[in-house]
Amino acid sequence: NDMEQPLSKGIPAFWARKVGTMFSNIDVTNSGVLTKSAVRSAAGRFKKYYNMEDEDAERIVHAYYMLFHIMAPHKDSITREEFINTVWRASFGKTEATLNRYKNAYSAIFDVIETAKKGRMSFEEFKSYWHMQKWNDSLCEATFKWMDKENNGYVTKEQFNDMALAYYDLDDIVDGVEADEEDGLHTGYNLMWGPIA
């Protein structure tokens, strides 16, 4: 998984792999470059998988565009290396405005996954979303359990947002969890965007 261009100095290798996994999850064409059209293609998978109405599909496009504009402000495309560097810069010394932009984007994604519109996500809803991304049930269960702090069988929007933001933290580095340690790779927040690439 070598990068074509060097990353900014100071980015831990495992953290870069995590964010690279996020990039790959959105880059459904495997081009190594995210564009607005590629983001729309990623959202198009949702429409086909869920047999969605156009209006619901546009909500997904909107949610993904929100993330895209956080990572690539004022740009029409972003490479994998640029993406990782941008997320690194955005994840430290976070301003309240940046945090709110992240939360708004993930809230929009939560609204897409939570199809019953009850304000809380069930395991079945979560599993259905990630099955589309080729997850197996054990990965879905590990991640959902990590989010379900109350162990009541559902996840609120706040819990989902907290988990999404935790993905960018360095706790795994600080705690000495390295990329070759199974426990680190399968910690709940490390699975937000799928198994670490």
From TrEMBL:
Pfam families: EF-hand_8. InterPro entries: EF-hand-dom_pair, EF_hand_dom. One of its GO terms (molecular function) is calcium ion binding. It comes from Owenia fusiformis (Polychaete worm). This is Uncharacterized protein.
